[in-house]
Write a structure and sequence with these properties.
Length: 422
């Protein structure tokens, strides 16, 4: 085997986590190769954080223009150009991608290896038809949308969070299956654009405390978003004129049909290790497909680390890139070895209104047996929020009753994602 196919470290996955890992290892002097079968930048750049925030900015501007009269500014003859919104999204992503990521890898001495990776055994990784060897590996293959097993789903056209970003025309109606982060963000955007939005979900943002989801549901209702709380989709079929029919079971057992032009599946994301054959390398995975790691990001195979969404821990860009740094440092032999501290990770939701949380939820704290005290203030009681005309929502802090130590916080309202880190 030629020297070209020998590396100190091979990083599998060219998203933000993989880039963070590879860059950290390269700075320590390791000879690093990065394997990517699709586009550099991964979910965040191509179909996640970046494009959704670009579209969200257009939605925010549109809402500001609509409310301009409240501030004594009279605007007339404005309209949404959805094609221009999506064109701006594509242009910015092309600006961020292009030759930039490849050039960045080159400058750091990281070799890009395009292709699909499969472990032949613990020591050999086959990329397409070529075998490669490395002393150590990092798995950073990210995640993919969950496609639920619901009768009739295969008979209709639907979109995931990837496909909805490629819509060319604004739908009149959108039905979202799932009330998590993805569902709430897209509901906010398309509602602002004038689409009639319905969410089918047990409750909104179920990973947070119930009062967070309840506040969002109330805000969405005021905006005209219909939230079918306590519901779930139990069937799909084709409707007339290209529309889709979704059978919805309500909390009381009643079933009704809802029609929509577009159906968005937003029931979560799963670790992506499709075809990687990690078992052959001695890497253990949990039943949900997550690669099991310790705090040092090392897997059950001593020479393999994993980081990011593939571990199913805190699937946010800021935390996955942090995990990538830990994995890259340790895999490259950095001393002393580092461990990831994931106890305080901000949890942002870029919806309208914004939601952000950090630390323990009230529910988690009580489950852990903590005696807690909760302080809450509404934005309507804050003078600056009143002056800005942004009075929706509240902030709460969860503290340990005996010591006053802050255990967690949650914010629903304006600039929540900036405030949570202060």
């Amino acid at each position: 085997m030629s020297d070209q196919k020998e590396f100190d470290l091979l990083v599998i996955g060219g998203g933000g986590t993989g880039y963070s890992a590879a860059s950290t290892a390269a700075k320590l002097g390791a000879r690093v190769g990065m394997v990517e079968r699709d586009k550099l930048g991964g979910t965040c750049l191509n179909v996640g954080c970046v494009p959704t925030k670009i579209i969200l900015r257009s939605a925010q501007v549109l809402e500001t223009v609509r409310r301009a009269g409240e501030f004594g500014i009279h605007v007339s003859d404005f309209r949404l150009d959805f094609a221009a919104v999506m064109g701006r999204k594509r242009a910015i992503i092309e600006c961020f991608s292009g030759d930039g990521p490849i050039e960045s890898l080159r400058r750091q001495g990281i070799e890009l290896l395009p292709g699909h990776a499969v472990f032949e055994d613990a020591a050999t990784l086959r990329i397409d038809d070529e075998p490669y060897r490395a002393g150590r590996y990092i798995v950073a293959t990210g995640s993919a949308s969950v496609i639920p097993n619901i009768p009739g789903l295969s008979e209709i056209e639907y979109v995931t969070s990837d496909g909805i970003l490629d819509l060319r025309t604004l739908p009149e109606s959108l039905l979202i299956v799932g009330g998590g982060i993805i569902g709430c963000e897209f509901a906010s955007m398309f509602n602002a654009f004038g689409t009639r939005v319905t969410i089918v979900s047990r409750r909104l943002l179920s990973n947070e405390d119930e009062d967070v989801g309840d506040e969002m549901a109330g805000s969405f209702a005021r905006r005209g978003i219909e939230v079918l709380g306590g519901s779930r989709a139990v069937g799909f079929r084709r409707g007339s004129h290209g529309r889709k029919v979704v059978s919805v079971r309500h909390a009381d057992g009643r079933i009704e049909d809802r029609e929509a032009d577009v159906v968005l599946l937003a029931v979560g994301r799963r670790p992506n290790q499709d075809g990687l054959n990690l078992k052959a390398a001695g890497v253990r995975s949990a039943p949900n497909g997550a690669v099991e790691v310790g705090p040092d990001m090392r897997t059950s195979a001593a020479h393999i680390w994993a980081a990011g969404d593939v571990t199913r821990m805190h699937m946010y860009t800021h935390s996955t890139e942090y995990m990538g740094e830990i994995a890259g440092w340790n895999a490259a032999g950095g001393t002393p070895a580092h461990q990831a501290d994931l106890t305080v990770v901000p949890r942002p939701v870029y919806s309208l209104p914004e939601v952000a949380a950090i630390g323990l939820t009230e529910r988690e704290a009580r489950r852990l047996g903590r005696e807690v005290e909760v302080a809450r203030v509404r934005f309507a009681d804050i003078s600056r929020a009143v002056m800005k005309g942004e009075t929706e929502g509240w902030c709460k802090i969860i503290a340990e009753q005996l010591t006053g130590r802050i255990l967690g916080a949650a914010i629903v309202g304006p600039e929540a994602n900036e405030l949570i880190g202060r």
